[in-house]
Amino acid sequence: MTDAQETAAETALRTTGGAPPDDGVADGVADETPIPLLEPREGIPPVVADEHALAEVIAAFARGTGPVAVDAERASGYRYGQRAYLVQLRREGAGSALIDPVGCPDLSALGEGLAGAEWILHAATQDLPCLREIGMVPTRLFDTELAGRLAGFPRVGLGAMVESVLGYALEKGHSAVDWSTRPLPEPWLRYAALDVELLVDLRDALEKELDRQGKLEWAHQEFDAIASAPPPPPRKDPWRRTSGMHKVRRRRQMAVVRELWTARDRIAQRRDVSPGKVLSDAAIVEAALALPPDVQALTALPGFGHRMGRRQLEQWQAAVDRAKALPDAELPQPGQAVQGPPPPRAWADKDPAAAARLSAARSAVSALAESLNLPPENLITPDTVRRVCWEPPAEVSADSVAGALAGHGARRWQIEQVTPVLVGALTAARA
């Protein structure tokens, strides 16, 4: 960090204290204009796109010291899937590196070289899946976004955090560009390098703030849970998440959605483009509702029309026809099997006592979260509260409620904080 950067960081933390004393929430650098961060300290590093250059980076980062800042850029909305198209790193003693996973698709050696280091990521759960695909899996991490939530910051985007904690303004104009573009333009590379430029500094400042608030151990438990979590299983029936699906009521119409979604996904994967660029969700739903008898009728629907070639229209009509020809026994069921409690809006009718428990528990959790200056969903997940309220322990006690919370995956700090208020809420609801 340069002298100017250190001065700005100290001013920001001194002015906000990481969080103003009146409400404990850091909401920016008071009376300070953020300093635009325009260039990486050592300039824009060259893009690493071959094995020789990668080996040099691996060696340099293995020699480095302290935590390593990690970021990844995807091409969401442009390409199929969520693969990484650029990986950015920074570490003391190694500087910054930009790695092209297209030219270097296997980064497992880099991941192994950094295995003993703490990885700093912002919103780690967004980047870990694409990093895992290329062989980069941390054993320890520090999530600056989650740290900001636990510390009570109202805005936890990277730009907002860097500005309010360190006093610098990051240029965020390239966050949604097509990172599969080759060669990557210099302004994009500058933006990418700046995303890891101050992550170590941000991590250090947030660690001090969490420690000041007595929440550092909470953060460590959260970070450990993220690092040790297994990859999520493939989503069952992903076609059910088609936007506008709530309009589709009949099983035959659902079958049309399923057939069109599956055909679109196959084409998108083959072309390596975002499925929405092949056919929109809105068009799929329109076809499902209309059940067009032929290509001419399909062409008249929104989302199809004259811009599509005859061959494209025929393939979509073929999918509709397949759904229309299915026997009733093969049609999808109206809803997925519900895992866990029903939607809360149905509780009053299904189980008024459970609805009363949930209302009391929600109020108690919200009040506790406010007193601790963190979002209720970070104190305990709403799903966990719902599950405990829907099927509470037969005998409500601190031990039984703590055991129920642990069974649903709550961390130790969450159990310690939430158990007393849940015991009180469940007991009061029974009275």
Automatic annotation (TrEMBL):
Record-linked Pfam families: DNA_pol_A_exo1, DNA_pol_A_exoN, HRDC
Superkingdom in the source lineage: Bacteria
PROSITE patterns in the record: HRDC
Keyword presence, Nuclease: yes
Low complexity biased stretches: 17-28
Xref: CDD domains: RNaseD_exo (cd06142)
UniProt keyword list: Exonuclease, Hydrolase, Nuclease
GO molecular function: 3'-5' exonuclease activity; nucleic acid binding; nucleotide binding
GO aspect biological process, one term: nucleobase-containing compound metabolic process
The keyword Metal-binding is annotated on this UniProt entry: no
Region: Disordered, residue numbers: 1-31, 226-246, 329-349
Domain HRDC: 250-330
PANTHER family attached to this UniProt entry: RIBONUCLEASE D (PTHR47649:SF1)
Protein name stated in the entry: 3'-5' exonuclease
Organism, scientific name: Streptomyces lavendofoliae
